[in-house]
Amino acid sequence: MSSDDAKHAALEEAKREVEEAESLTGASAVAVHATTGPRRSPLVTLAWVAPGTIWLLLFLIAPLVMIVLVSVWQKTPVGFDPFAFTTEGYTKLFDTPVYLDTLKDTIIRALIVTALCILIGYPIAYFLARGVSSIRYQIALFVFVLAPFWVAYVVRIVAWLPVLGRQGVINYFLVEVIGVRAEPIDALLYSNFAIILALVQLYVLFMVTPIFFQLATLDNAAIEAARDLGATPAKVFREVILPLSLPGVLIGCIFVFVLVMGEFATVRLIGGGTIQSVGTLVYDYYKLPDLPTAAAGATILVAVMTIGVAVLLRFSKIREVV
Amino acid sequence: MTLLWYLIGVLILVVPFAAMVMLPIKRSKPVLTVYFLLFVVFMYGPMVAMAVLSLQGTTGSMTLPAKELFSFHWYSELNSSMSVMVAVREGIGKSLWLSLIVAVITAVLSLTLGMAFRRQFRGSGALFYAILLSLMTPGLLLSLGLSFLLYYVGIQKGEGALGYVPIIGVQTVWALPFGFLVMMSIFNRYDARAEEAARDLGASNVTTFREVTLPLIWTGVFGAGLFGFTLALNEFERTFLVSGTINTLPLQLYIITTASVLRPYVYSLGVVTILLSFLLIALFLVVSGLTGRKKTRAVEEDGSGVDAPSMTPAAASGD
């Protein structure tokens, strides 16, 4: 068989797997689970569906709808006047450049953090999924890496204070131990650098996990076939492993991007009040209290997130066509 | 000089990635192993630094170098009569109770949703996306929206028994997708034949569920509850704007951290919550490990084995 045939075969195999992987990650995930149960009457179905649905309607959907509604309602001294329509909240946001500038900063920050999470998270997931041969060790290491996720988020932020401060671990190391700097770096804490560092640490697990699952369930046959037929390691990675893991990367990107866009506590605690995000801005309006303006800020944020997610999904669609 | 540091940073990020792309896994493994260790330091380093600083003596400060190691001074401080510490202890008490309630509700709702999704139903797609949405909605927005809703319907935040409802509400929304994932992974490898047999023998729906289904999946339900407990215990942003005067442990920590002068008891409090979380994870692993063993034994004994729920990466994932 010529090397062209080999390339072709591996490519076909990979494409088939990509399709399979995508069908599993999409909406059809519901259908996969939907045939294991016994037949049942509509009433029984309703009984199982209702509690969770009511809970989500009450504590998830209704609050999100409220944000949009309040953003176009009249402000009162302590709250808002329902059904008194006005766009004041929005005009107030755009009176000064503060909101738009902050929005721009927040988007850039979210993009940087997402990119760094891919760059750091992918090799880690790859190592866990393909570099550890024993399943036992694999699960143990995975749980070990994942454990910080269950630690209180505020505690994880607080833990950065002794590291990043003027006399923190990093400066201590630079000045006292290696002596490469005579003076500590002031800019470590309360800087964009510090915020991004902490955010990457807080959210990288949202990237590692989906990529890990995608890579761990990857069929070795496709890789071996491609390798046996003479594809270089780089080619195997580019044409087999990477395309098969892209759904995981995509899910990770959506999580990290959306969650970092809505960040509040990290920016407040590590930014020390000097650096803003849309989240802290919304909170400041909420504290005033100017609820409609806070709601308007939040609505725009949701809109931007939705556009971001749509772009990401679109990007994956284009790849499917090609 | 700064440029050199940037260069080193970029190299640390790019070299492992390049090795992964260019080399077969056998050759890139050493590089990736070192990188993995660096990653572990990145994830755990700050917590270790915090733990060390929490073990300082009376003169200890918030930063290095650590003074008078090792002493439990700042831990005993947690037990003192200072008003901050009284508030913290109240916070811990409230958090534990709240988390317990959230755990029970999460377990029940994960169970019902898990049962619901065993068959397709009208709107199952929409409900599935709603569950995903609860995972993806930033905490601050959820908190903000719910506080609007409370104002709209005229419920005073943090007052009376009703004040706990919104907190339980948002914390459960946060925990639900995880509990749901656990139940999905359980039903994914669940053998429905036992149920059919029971029904063929004339058992009613309720009896079948109580006598057959529930005993087979209870570890999953328990796991969902544990997820609920841990996530609720550590929840901050969703609780932030709806709690009123009810300060849970993470809220207390936030208040202490943003207000006035910081003392190392912030660190000892942090360490205590970390230990508590890890204890809960260990409990989760032990429980799922037990069922895993039961499954193996069942297979050994009769060759077929009841497909009992076991610890899977999906169950442990968290996202």
Structural class of chain A: mainly alpha
Q: How many domains make up the 3D coordinates of chain A?
A: 1
Count of distinct strands of chain A:
2
Radius of gyration of chain B: 24 Å
State the CATH architecture of the largest domain in chain B: Orthogonal Bundle
The CATH architecture category of chain A equals Orthogonal Bundle
The greatest inter-chain interface is formed by: A-B, 115 and 118 residues
Q: What is the rounded distance between the termini of chain A?
A: 26 Å
**Cα gyration radius of chain A (Å):** 24 Å
Name the beta content range of chain A.
Answer: under 5%
Q: What is the class of the largest domain in chain B in the CATH system?
A: Mainly Alpha
| Helix percent band of chain B | over 70%
Instruction: State the assembly state of the protein chains.
Output: heterodimer
Query: What overall geometry of chain B do the principal axes of the alpha carbons give?
Result: globular
Distance between the termini of chain B: 40 Å
Name given to the CATH homologous superfamily of chain A: MetI-like
**What do we call the CATH homologous superfamily of the largest domain in chain B?**
MetI-like
Reported for the largest beta sheet of chain B, the result is: none
- Number of domains in the coordinates of chain B? 2
- Biggest sheet layout of chain A: 2 strands, antiparallel
Features of the shown structure:
heterodimer; A: mainly alpha; MetI-like fold; two-stranded antiparallel sheet; 2 strands; B: 319 residues; mainly alpha; 2 domains; 0% strand
List the helices and strands and how they pair.
The complex is a heterodimer of chains A (322) and B (319).
Chain A: H1 3-25, H2 29-33, H3 42-70, E1 73-75, E2 80-85, H4 88-95, H5 98-131, H6 135-146, H7 153-158, H8 161-164, H9 169-177, H10 192-216, H11 220-228, H12 233-261, H13 265-271, H14 278-287, H15 291-321
Antiparallel strand pairs in A: 1-2
Chain B: H1 2-22, H2 25-54, H3 73-76, H4 83-116, H5 124-136, H6 139-153, H7 164-188, H8 193-200, H9 205-234, H10 237-240, H11 249-258, H12 265-302, H13 313-317
Helix pairs in contact in B: 1-2, 2-12, 4-7, 4-9, 4-11, 5-7, 7-9, 8-9, 9-12
